[in-house]
Amino acid sequence: MTDIIYIQPLTAASFAPFGDVIEASGHPDRMINAGMCRRFDDCAQLSFADGRAGISVFDAKVRKLPMTLDLMERHPDGSQAFLPMTQNPFLVVVAPDEDGIPGRPVAFETQPGQGVNYHRNVWHGVLAPLYEPGLFAVVDRVGAGANLEEHRFAHDITIMK
Amino acid sequence: MTDIIYIQPLTAASFAPFGDVIEASGHPDRMINAGMCRRFDDCAQLSFADGRAGISVFDAKVRKLPMTLDLMERHPDGSQAFLPMTQNPFLVVVAPDEDGIPGRPVAFETQPGQGVNYHRNVWHGVLAPLYEPGLFAVVDRVGAGANLEEHRFAHDITIMK
């Protein structure tokens, strides 16, 4: 049996159960720099069990659609934000937790100018840029321990448009 | 008298007195996602006197060159990282502190894939994208208080290539 998941556009409302969409949307919280800059404040719920926040850079190979989803992961000790350093859309796959394993995945494609923050311990697919270069700044926990749980699916799941 | 500052390319070495260049440079610290992703760990010295790290979004108007630098600012209570959500180069102006005011400014232009982190209390110019859209994710301190010191120059400073 192949399970097919269709990709939907990413919106803050549809992504809310899993995390935050980081984008310049709606009214800015403040105008700064003498009116030259719109500031949207504090767009992501950062949460770290211990350790501290750090900024890393991920350079990931592009994924082709349709894509087989064989693995999901989660980070029990911290949230993880992916901030694209390009205007390229990328694929965001998340799932609700069902008794310690991922339930049915949900797939989103970002628009230019959108980043995401996975809330702590939310199941998600690995970083999946759809276009070169797959370059991201990542804000996540820096600290001791693996902070990683993985789940391999027993059946094939296909992600497509 | 007009003082002219010429723009130089941004490198980690030349920027080191002021902060960190956030980029996928050199050997990755780790390969993750079954070899599909290069991870460059913990690229920025985040430092907050109090409060906590947050992710905000800045959408700034483009600056034209040559640019007059009339104002610099610094944040006594925290570092501030600018992560471009585009591949557009932007202008980075910093200055050493000299008895509580900015010394002679230094100007850099980023390359695609480069972000910067201003160390805590380092004098810098306001966000100056050179191309539309001027969209950045910003990792800085979220907390009480102004956390802002400004300095207006008594003479004109021109930034140019």
TrEMBL record, chains A, B:
An annotated Gene Ontology molecular function: ureidoglycolate hydrolase activity
EC no. given is 3.5.3.19
The residues forming the signal peptide are: none
InterPro entries (alphabetical): RmlC_Cupin_sf, UAH_cupin, Ureidogly_lyase, Ureidoglycolate_lyase_dom_sf
Report if keyword Chloroplast is assigned: no
- For this protein, the parts annotated as crossing the membrane are none
Q: Which GO terms describe its biological process?
A: allantoin catabolic process; purine nucleobase metabolic process
- Alphabetic keyword roster: Hydrolase, Lyase, Purine metabolism
Return the broad EC class. Answer: hydrolase
Q: Which Gene3D superfamilies does UniProt cross-reference here?
A: Ureidoglycolate hydrolase
Query: Pfam families under this entry?
Result: Ureidogly_lyase
Q: Which reaction does it catalyse?
A: (S)-ureidoglycolate = urea + glyoxylate
Q: What quaternary structure, including any partners, is listed in this protein's UniProt entry?
A: Homodimer.
Q: What is this protein called?
A: Ureidoglycolate hydrolase
